[in-house]
Design a protein that fits this description.
The complex is a heterodimer of chains A (525) and B (200). Chain A has 525 residues and is of the alpha+beta class. Helices cover 31% and strands 18% of the residues of chain A. Chain A has 14 helices and 19 strands. The longest helix of chain A has 20 residues. Chain B is of the alpha/beta class and 200 residues long. Classes of the chains: A alpha+beta (525), B alpha/beta (200).
Chain lengths: 525, 200
Amino acid sequence: MNSILPKGVSKERFAAATGAMRKVVGDPWVILDENPLIAGYMDTYSAAPESSTAASAAVCPGSVEEVQEIVRIARQYRIPIWSISTGKNFAYGGPAPRTAGQVVLDLRRMNRVIEVNTDLGYAIVEPGVAYVDFYNYMKRHKLPYWIDCAANGMGGVMGNTLDHGVGYTAYGDHLLMQCGMEVVLSDGSLMRTGMGALPNGAASWPVYKYGYGPYIDGLFTQSNFGVVTKIGLWLMPEPPAFRPFMVQLQNEDDLYEVTEKLRPLKINMIIPNAAITVHLLWEASVYTTKHEWKTGSGPLPQRTLRQIAEKFNLGMWNFYAALYGLPEVVEANWQIVESTFRSIKGAKIYREADRKDDPSFNYRVRLMRGEPNLTEFSLMNWVGGGGHINFSPISPASGADAMKQFHMIRKACEKYGFDYIGEFVIGWREQHHILMLMFNRYDADESRRAHDCFAQLINDAAAEGYGEYRTNLHFMDQIAGTYNANDGALLRMQRRIKHALDPAGILSPGKNGIWPLGESPETNS
Amino acid sequence: MVHRRELLKTGAGLLLAAPIRIPLRLLTGVTGATTEAPDVIAETGIAAASELINAAQANARHARAIDLDSTIMIRRLSEAWAANPRPLFGMTRSDIAILVEALARDRGMAVVYRGWHDHRANGDIHHVLYGNPDVIAAMQREFTSARGAFGRVLGRHVAELASVGPRPASINFTVETSGRPPRQARFVTWAVAPMGTAAA
């Protein structure tokens, strides 16, 4: 008998529900907690105990029809189901559900690239397609388009898009490049958004986002209003010329100037891709680990940071971007870019040929041309032990905001005994600041400090008007609580939508702080 | 031996066939007539790796030192396990462990053992073990006797650790040694196994 059950569900009801689910998907695809495979649905890398998000079961449908049946069964038996596509967003909770006992609806078996249209440059994919699968598909079929991938090449195309993830090419804003969505609603019915709602609208579905009436695709991202089973994606044509480059900055205060100089280049689309300004230790982890520089706990001193920068020919900040397009256009834009960044005192500009033996530059280049890889996982070795959570506040792309956030976050990291390991991903007008909070998960004190540091950062950031764009399972409610202008009007509306679309409250309860009516973090703790 | 950093320099993507200078079929054992796929791998640069490998080999395991780019390693394992999932025990840094565990789930394999071995400044070693309760209890006793030479103990137990057994449990304990902590990256040990299949 299962030792973990969904909250408020009897053993008999759970057994009846999972028994019905077995009839839909087959015995091997309902994984109960006596099955060792259930360990694969743990959040093994956050600062909270694994038991706090341990699934009671996982169900793996192989088709849209099976998803519909599973949702109907969950609704009939009032079983909470937590949807994942590939479950590889490790810093944000991986495949684990929001609370212990929820059943994971694992969509990884639905892993087909349904279509790639080479005339119009779009693809339609299922939830289980990983970046590496998508990349391999494009190469295997010799298609003249690039994909845009996240830094984790094993990550899921749809999951990343629905969680507002970003990549590194000119198509790096993944949700911006999404067009058309298929969703299973909580009653098991199937809906297509936009032009897909026309019985014969398939041709326009992946090319025109808005259809007729309210534009609703966004409602199914970072939410729990339905189970998304297909999305359309626009693909970037393979450019005739590609010029990646790095600007190495010698001082931490140079963050201000590089951000200010970048902004007009972004807004005017001279630099079209998701550019990144990366702090020293993020890049240094490709070469070295903290143990080589310091024994014992606490952040590295500035003196040591300087030594690391010198040894590995890195800057205190390292800026990466690329130019894409016709060779003549790339060359013309390069003149602008080079002269702009050359004006920063001490800045060194490198092109691909200058650093061909540099693994940190190399993996950035691969990301900027949409080649999935796993090099960034080197970060996991910096401290060792695998603990990591991402703190990700948004701000305008301004030097003042970048400096303010950098100092605020580093101060908190140092207070709790951690190194600042961060980067800024700069979009058209905004920047995502990503702190990779690394800790030894096998050290209870260090894990507790990481959790406390993160919780403080949320409040510190909110006090300055900064909100996070995405987060780990354990901080979803706290962050949702910071978006509380007008007496929490936004969250109240989200909960009303939740109740209207999912009155039984079975779909991913608690996702991004959206609980069914009558439930709250407290009732689920 | 090709070093990890050298392979990173090649810039191999997950698909691209990089000019690897070591016979990667030896890692996966699925190419040609070679059937010597290791069931134990240990990353070079970890002090306990040679103890582990020697003890595992003495225990009739096929153990091998590795120094591979994580992208390439996961690609090869992915290809191999798609056709033939096999038990695998590892002593590696955290990045490889995380990626292997994630891949294992995709291939219907279970994480059946995890070990964390932290060298403290005073020479003590703190161990956290997750796995078959009987096996890890025995290992606690043997680790204590072996003091710093726990790689040898692991090498003797890899077959049991890389097998699907009863519901896993966790223990943590500290072993006193008089040794100096190695100046190296922290590392972990782990094992994954196909469901219902004992280590061959």
